[in-house]
Write a structure and sequence with these properties.
alpha+beta, three-stranded mixed beta sheet, 12 strands
Length: 373
């Protein structure tokens, strides 16, 4: 697990629950293999090997928490929720928002994005509407924030997770109930010194990838190769390279094999020969396809995006009077990486349609195509 810097501001005191059965149910969401980390986090003196079943272990943990804290405190539940979010991985759907308007005072911005001040301001802003507990942890360059919001009783409680990069207008959030969304985002806008926090048409299961697509949308794909030092040529140079008088096909074959080997594909020469036997391409065509794919996607790892949707609204089709409307959706574990793989292997024709080339630069995974676009 990632080591995190933590600093907690507690506005909501007392315990979430004092019932051992409820506490055991909260602990049972962790697997038996994860219990060592849970026990270490709770600072309990238990050995999972001493218990025959997970149920027996969880029951004992709940008893020890009640003996130690007379229940389950909000601060302990916050630490458990953050650990569960880290261990569970990309199980929730995150939505990206952008703070718009406001001031640009650099000195105040620097003060704002300290972890302690971020927590304190969120607690104060949200406490106007809710009983609240805020916990934030910094992992690498991302700040993970858990908001526990209570309206009158535990039955009316809400837990929201937020991920953002300090000094940046983009945030990724888990689902927020419609009844509390205006208050939550008004508080976020106040803390980010913005006029409003508006949604983008960007969502997925990896908050880090979503923020990368939003923050660095102008340097994705091939441009990422320049950013990461993978290329050392002038991207504005349009002069065609000179070709030798002989041996063009052999040099093309060697170049392709070298590129495939550089991308970690073993036996590139054999793979290339077998692929040519299937699709009947020359080595020059293979080289052009590799170049076309690399020109769009580059060689760096692609951000993880599990969905990409295009809504078509076309009115200038000869075969369809009126307006033609359709929706095309790409789904998978990583859509952008999948498109690059299809283009590289020649399953789709290159160059790709402009809308697919622009998808990674749009900071959105729900795009609308019209006659103008």
């Amino acid at each position: 697990t990632t080591k995190a810097k933590t600093n907690t501001v507690t506005m909501l005191g007392g315990n979430v629950s004092e019932d051992e059965g409820e506490i055991a149910q909260m602990l049972s969401r962790f697997t038996l293999q994860q219990m060592d980390q849970v026990i270490s986090l709770l600072d309990l003196e238990l050995n999972p090997q001493d218990y025959r079943t997970k149920r027996a272990l969880v029951t004992q943990m709940a008893q020890d928490l009640c003996d130690e804290y007379s229940g389950l405190p909000h601060s302990v539940l916050a630490r458990l929720d953050m650990l569960h979010m880290e261990l569970k991985g990309n199980s929730k759907r995150w939505h990206v928002y952008m703070a718009e308007g406001g001031t640009e005072d650099s000195d105040e911005q620097t003060i704002l994005w300290t972890l302690q001040r971020w927590q304190q301001q969120l607690s104060e802003a949200l406490s106007v509407y809710f009983s609240v507990h805020v916990r934030a942890e910094q992992r690498d360059n991302l700040v993970w924030t858990r908001l526990y919001l209570e309206q009158g009783s535990v039955a009316g409680s809400h837990t929201v997770f937020i991920v953002h990069i300090p000094d940046n207008p983009f945030i990724a959030s888990t689902a927020v109930s419609a009844t509390i969304k205006p208050f939550v985002f008004a508080s976020l806008a106040s803390c980010m010194r913005a006029l409003a926090v508006e949604p983008l048409r960007l969502n997925g299961k990896s908050p880090s990838s979503l923020l990368s697509l939003a923050v660095e949308h102008k340097s994705q794909g091939r441009l990422a190769d320049f950013k990461c030092g993978g290329l050392d040529t002038n991207p504005l140079n349009r002069k065609r390279a000179k070709r030798g008088e002989t041996g063009e096909g052999q040099r093309a074959r060697v170049t392709i094999a070298g590129r495939l080997e550089a991308n970690g594909i073993e036996g590139a020469e054999t793979a290339l020969s077998s692929r040519e036997n299937i699709v009947h391409e020359t080595s020059t065509q293979e080289l052009k396809r590799q170049d076309a794919s690399g020109f769009v996607f580059g060689k760096q790892s692609m951000p993880t995006l599990d969905q990409l949707t295009f809504d078509l609204e076309l009115s200038k089709l000869r075969s369809c009077p009126g307006t033609f409307r359709a929706s095309v959706k790409f789904k998978g574990s990583s859509v952008l990486s999948g498109l690059r793989t299809l283009a590289t292997r020649g399953v789709v024709s290159t160059p790709l349609p402009q809308c697919l080339q622009d998808a990674m630069h749009s900071a959105s995974n729900h795009l609308t195509l019209t006659d103008a676009s």
